[in-house]
């Protein structure tokens, strides 16, 4: 070959050839590339990465590529899918890969990295729920060897040194990992002659074997061997390592992902923090009660305890604040959950007596939110006066303050101003309406007259942090995952909107379109997010939220995960959730509509109100309603007056008329009919661009649509379907792939997404790609042709449950609708007999068993549904056990369990029955003894054929591995 002078001959000889090889199926127009931390791999600029070439090997499609690097080269890298112009389409999840060319490798030799694409589910074992809680013992094993690559030199020229690497995140004590295979160097399938792998940390096991080139391709599998000599071979088919004939490698690093086992499955209990009842609490569940709940979970075989949001919601100073999804601060914890008895070891007798009296008075059937808050804060202030100097001088407080002052100072200042001005509406705070760091420092200055008020909020948050941290550590030690809840919104009068106003669109409101919960949609009242602004600092506000949650939780539920794809946005003046639009979305342009023959945009976008509509809704009283709310702008055609042309204006005017007794019907009925008229539109005009329009949800339900000509109807039907079910999919997918990774990468908590409602087709593939676990509620199936979900068909990457906090309990649902109950009994139970009118324990057990036996990774049950297993706990009317009514925006969140956790712990009959259900389904249970915590050997994950006595017959092993298929199987293993 002619030397063109591009590279010196000596340098060329010294370089090492590094190859990449990965099996991956792409769609037309998609390509695979490697991008890494060094210039030769693009310095993390995907467009400069190494483009790989596709090669078919049998039925498999492999992507391969090579670069030359100097001896001792090292970098990080990952794989990416791009289009023909190298625009990023998707990327693998998990940690960055490590590339290291050992010094012992000679110039001119070839090293190949045989990798597998890392999916979101592959990375789940590395989340704190598993790594730090359930599989903690496996992760804390003693490291046996370095994680460095290729520590052994090649012994001979006719061999290839292969490094076998596999992840075993859930390994029982005193268990070894072997690799066996078709080569004599791998024991010829004899375990005793196979290679024992060494532990390198982070659940990774490896060994290096020099295999003669004539032995390739080599079929192999990994095998666990316990201390009793019982082997457990990983699931079929065989793995394969082969040598490509052109670029003959000297070294192969075979990264095999996870050991193939039956998927890990667990169960849990869900209950709001405020609903827990204990003998020690004062009117409401408290953070320290979680220790009792964890003990009950362990006794019942549960690996998880799930809560609703626990952030401070003290916006209005009344029971409205019981709504846990309307945060005053996304960082501060709720004072409601404070245990005042634990604020000091030296509480005076007078305060102890006050606490005892409060316990008796507040020990009611339901939470008295206002009285409980008032009482706890009053007692806490008295203890604060006695303890403040000691607490603020302590090292533990100073560490807490140092780590949290970024949010703690604004929170304390906000609470002071809220109480001073008697409102959380910071637009009413005069010169303090606009936040600045300079104003903040003056507000929290130590020489201010109100400094003790500021310090009181520090004091409360410090103790809340201490108490929740104690409970969280207790859960971890018991092998129980504590699962939090991440609300999709914040209150518009919150610390966050005051400090970070540019991150929110304050003239809008979030909600949900009509769905299972409400035919008129939902309006949650939160401002929508300004994602463009948030992206400027790589979503720092979101990353901060998740980092804060991770101090206490090892898993979390993302409330309304669809909001990270698109949010249902309503104008700030709306009260219902019907007439909204998706943000982001591609609207219908005026030009587009005109090309379709639609011209009268006022007719389509203004409320369509005829005299006959008024007569139909209001009867003989329609002239009175029209005179107050409407103008006749054409003969028999009406429009709303300026003072009532929005839902909020209409409601305000109605209230005034009702107070004057000037209404011919109830205020509720008239408001409903007037709202129907306001919503009687076909298109919603964009308030920011008059030439853009959005189809009104369920537009065919309106008389405005039904009175159109057939051509207009057909055009609008087609455009409606396109807007809601087709044209947005790629936009929403791209939006989620920009926003969700910022959340997922900011902590190592296990992430679950609440994906109920109208689900775009892009959602579940993205969730699967990112390793997000979905939610399945049996009465709300994803399949449009089913009335009841079939748990046996659920995907592994799901949480399944018979009910949730946003709907009636299992018992209440059973009793609500006789016809539906008959259908369920016939279709799901498979019986033509008449079902019992009540959800008796037998029915409850049948439904719960369906769920624990499902393939879902998690089966998580509301505590109310579990109590239905025992007749004595069903004396309370089922309707009283509902936590939330989504149709009522002013619902009072106050449900309390009617028995204490101490009583439930004493009820071994109930806990044994629940644990039997969990264990018989093959789900993992936490160990009962704390010292044996965090690793449970689930017999369901063992392979019966491989658990024979010492000295397993070699013929048996050979029989088990005869399949020589080259196709890798992706089995989710925890």
Automatic annotation (TrEMBL):
SUPFAM superfamilies xrefs: (Trans)glycosidases, Starch-binding domain-like
Coarse class of the protein's main subcellular location: cytoplasm
Domain CBM20: 10-119, 154-266
Alphabetical keyword list: Carbohydrate metabolism, Cytoplasm, Glycosyltransferase, Transferase
Domain of life: Eukaryota
Cell compartment(s), UniProt: Cytoplasm
Region (Disordered): 921-949
Record's catalysed reaction(s): Transfers a segment of a (1->4)-alpha-D-glucan to a new position in an acceptor, which may be glucose or a (1->4)-alpha-D-glucan
EC code(s) of this entry: 2.4.1.25
Main enzyme class: transferase
GO CC terms in record: cytosol
InterPro entries referenced in this protein's UniProt entry, alphabetically: Carb-bd-like_fold, CBM20, CBM20_DPE2_1, GH, Glyco_hydro_77, Ig-like_fold
Pfam entry (one): CBM_20
Molecular function terms from GO: 4-alpha-glucanotransferase activity; heteropolysaccharide binding; starch binding
GO terms for biological process, alphabetical: maltose catabolic process
Family: Belongs to the disproportionating enzyme family.
Protein name: 4-alpha-glucanotransferase
């Amino acid at each position: 070959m002619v030397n063109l002078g591009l590279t010196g001959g000596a340098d060329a000889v010294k370089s090492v050839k590094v190859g990449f090889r990965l099996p991956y199926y792409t769609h037309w127009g998609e390509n695979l590339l490697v991008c890494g931390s060094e210039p030769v791999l693009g310095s993390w600029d995907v467009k400069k990465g190494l483009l790989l070439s596709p090669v078919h090997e049998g039925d498999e499609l492999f992507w391969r590529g090579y670069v030359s690097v100097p001896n001792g080269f090292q970098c990080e890298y990952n794989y990416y899918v791009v289009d023909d112009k190298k625009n990023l389409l998707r990327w693998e999840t998990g940690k960055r890969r490590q590339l290291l060319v050992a010094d012992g490798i000679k110039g001119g030799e070839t090293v190949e990295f045989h990798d597998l694409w890392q999916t979101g589910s592959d990375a789940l074992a590395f989340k704190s729920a598993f790594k730090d809680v359930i599989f903690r013992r496996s992760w804390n094993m003693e490291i046996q060897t370095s994680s460095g690559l290729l520590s052994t030199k090649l012994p001979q020229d006719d061999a290839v040194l292969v490094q076998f690497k596999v992840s075993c995140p859930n390994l029982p004590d005193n268990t070894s990992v072997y690799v066996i295979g078709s080569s004599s160097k791998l024991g010829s399938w004899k375990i005793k002659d196979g290679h024992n792998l060494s532990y390198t940390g982070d659940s990774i096991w490896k060994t290096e074997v020099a295999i003669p080139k004539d032995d390739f391709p080599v079929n192999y599998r990994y095998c666990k061997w316990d201390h009793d000599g019982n082997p457990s071979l990983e699931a079929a088919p065989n793995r394969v390592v082969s040598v490509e004939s052109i670029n003959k490698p000297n070294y192969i690093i075979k990264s095999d992902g996870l050991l193939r086992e039956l998927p890990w499955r667990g169960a849990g209990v869900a209950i709001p923090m405020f609903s827990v009842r204990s003998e020690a609490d004062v009117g409401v569940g408290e953070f320290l009660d979680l220790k009792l709940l964890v003990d009950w979970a362990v006794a019942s075989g549960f690996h998880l305890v799930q809560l609703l949001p626990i952030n401070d919601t003290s916006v209005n100073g009344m029971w409205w604040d019981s709504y846990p999804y309307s945060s005053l601060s996304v960082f501060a914890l709720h004072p409601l959950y404070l245990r005042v008895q634990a604020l000091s070891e030296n509480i005076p007798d007078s305060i102890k007596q006050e606490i005892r009296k409060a316990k008796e008075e507040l020990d009611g059937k339901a939470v008295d939110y206002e009285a409980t808050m008032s009482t706890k804060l009053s007692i806490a202030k008295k203890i604060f006066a006695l303890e403040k100097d000691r607490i603020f001088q302590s090292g533990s407080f100073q560490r807490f303050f140092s780590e949290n002052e970024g949010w703690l100072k604004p929170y304390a200042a906000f609470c002071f101003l809220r109480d001073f001005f008697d409102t959380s509406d910071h637009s009413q705070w005069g010169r303090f309406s606009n936040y600045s760091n300079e104003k903040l420092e003056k507000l929290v200055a130590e020489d201010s007259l109100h400094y003790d008020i500021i310090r009181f909020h520090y004091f409360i948050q410090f103790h809340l942090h201490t108490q929740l941290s104690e409970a969280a550590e207790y859960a971890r030690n018991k092998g129980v995952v504590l699962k939090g809840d991440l609300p999709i919104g914040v209150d518009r009068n919150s610390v966050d909107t005051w400090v970070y106003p540019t991150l929110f669109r304050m003239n809008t409101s979030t909600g949900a379109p009509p769905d299972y919960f409400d035919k008129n949609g939902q309006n949650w009242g939160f401002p929508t997010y300004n994602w463009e602004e948030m992206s400027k600092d790589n979503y720092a506000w979101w990353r901060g939220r998740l980092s804060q949650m991770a101090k206490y939780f090892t898993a979390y539920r993302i409330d309304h995960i669809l909001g990270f794809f698109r949010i249902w946005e309503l104008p700030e003046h709306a009260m219902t959730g019907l007439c909204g639009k998706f943000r982001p979305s591609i609207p219908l342009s005026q030009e587009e509509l005109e090309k379709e023959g639609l011209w009268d945009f006022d007719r389509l976008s203004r409320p369509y109100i005829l005299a006959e509509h008024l007569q139909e809704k209001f009867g003989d009283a329609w002239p009175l309603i029209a005179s107050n709310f409407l103008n006749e702008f054409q003969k028999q055609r009406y429009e709303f007056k300026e003072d009532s042309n929005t839902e909020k204006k209409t409601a305000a005017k109605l209230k005034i008329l009702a107070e004057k007794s000037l209404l011919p019907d109830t205020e509720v009925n008239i408001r409903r009919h007037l709202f129907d008229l306001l919503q009687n539109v076909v298109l919603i005009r964009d308030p920011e661009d008059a030439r853009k329009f959005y189809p009104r949800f369920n537009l065919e339900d309106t008389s405005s649509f039904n009175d159109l000509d057939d051509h207009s109807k057909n055009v609008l039907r087609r455009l409606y379907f396109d807007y809601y079910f087709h044209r947005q999919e790629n936009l929403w997918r791209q939006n989620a792939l920009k926003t969700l990774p910022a959340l997922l990468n900011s902590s190592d908590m296990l992430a679950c997404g609440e994906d109920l409602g109208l689900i775009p087709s892009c959602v579940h593939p993205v969730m699967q790609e990112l390793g997000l676990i979905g939610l399945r509620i049996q009465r709300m199936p994803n399949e449009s042709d089913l009335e009841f979900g079939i748990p046996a068909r659920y995907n592994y990457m799901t949480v399944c449950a018979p009910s949730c906090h946003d709907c009636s309990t299992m018992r209440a649902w059973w009793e609500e609708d006789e016809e539906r109950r008959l259908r369920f009994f016939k279709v799901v139970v498979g019986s033509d007999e008449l079902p019992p009118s009540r959800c008796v324990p037998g029915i409850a057990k049948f439904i719960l068993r369906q769920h624990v036996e499902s393939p879902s990774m998690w089966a998580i049950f509301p505590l109310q549904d579990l109590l239905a297993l025992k007749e004595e706990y069903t004396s309370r009317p089922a309707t009283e056990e509902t936590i939330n009514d989504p149709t009522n925006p002013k619902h009072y969140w106050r449900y309390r369990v009617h028995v204490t956790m101490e009583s439930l712990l004493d009820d071994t009959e109930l806990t044994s029955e629940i644990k039997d259900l969990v264990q018989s389904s093959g789900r993992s249970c936490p160990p009962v003894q704390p010292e044996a915590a965090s690793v449970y050997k689930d017999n369901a994950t063992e392979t019966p054929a491989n658990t024979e006595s010492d000295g397993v017959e070699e013929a048996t092993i050979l029989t088990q591995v005869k399949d020589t298929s080259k196709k890798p199987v992706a089995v989710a293993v925890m």
